[in-house]
Amino acid sequence: MFNIMPIDQQFSAVIQQKIDLKTKPLGALGQLESCAKQLTLIFSKQLDSEQALVAFKPVISNPSLVVFAGDHGVASQGVSIAPSSVTSQMVANFAAGGAAINVFCRQLGWQLEVVDAGTLNTSHDKRVHNQRLGEITAPLNTEMAMSLSQVEKGFALAKQRVHSLYEQGCNTIAFGEMGIGNTTSAAALMAAILSLPASQCVGKGTGVSDEVIAKKIKVVEQALQLHQAHFDDPLMTLAALGGFEIVQITGAILAAAELGMAVIVDGFICTAAALVATRINANARDYMLFAHASDEQGHKAMLNALHATPLLQLDLRLGEGTGAALALPLLQASLAFYNDMASFADANVEQVV
Where is the active site (predicted)? Predict the structure, then answer.
């Protein structure tokens, strides 16, 4: 389905040595060092010699963030503080430039795209890409959220969107989401894939009451019981429990990894999509960097399952890709020190360890 090559580690030691010989104590730049190494490994994929690597200066090019929106039938089960109509209203807000993700992308230099993956109200705004898989998913606790053919169509559309950005020179991509009820879907995916009880996966989402959290747990438990026969197949798991936007984020992650792009993973919902992506093709994990640990219960468990160390801890739970957007300056800083910081030899400084 996706031909994703694992990152070749042949130059790993050379990259690490270059980092270690910068004018600093070993490891003194913390996670910036691991980011620099991973990004350099990703971006140097086409190099064929150690000599070429020594002269290579990796840079983040045309960073792009795609927000996918979709409506969830499970919202009718009383699992959110907002009605499904808010999804389409927020799509209009994204198109008009008024949401948090718009502000952060403008400030930090991301190219932002908005995709209607399947909402109740079709957007006719030319600034919104129409990649609709339907109007709304079915309630995941009473039937399959969508068909397998919808999942496959979502992957194809997401792949086209990623390829379009790649052809514009993008080598670093992030994804955001909007969809009332989608923390319930993400929690169900997490529980199914990691074989965890719903109570460890369901969180407060947009800030719901304890009563609503109890309802969410019950809904996820019903969904897990109903669809358990499908959980050995990640595509069928997506069809049973996913959302239109989560499906397309999963497909987009896989498509970006196939192209050798760096994938910046946002919070709870996007991490659930990343988790599914690794079950479809484990090599996709090589291309992922994780922006932040959200305030949503369950996110840290997913990060642990993916052996991921997030860059930021800001107690975010907004979605939209906001955490991924905020991580960009740190990623740029990691490559700046890798490319431009003097070595001990360059600066005539006595090497310290």
Answer: 320
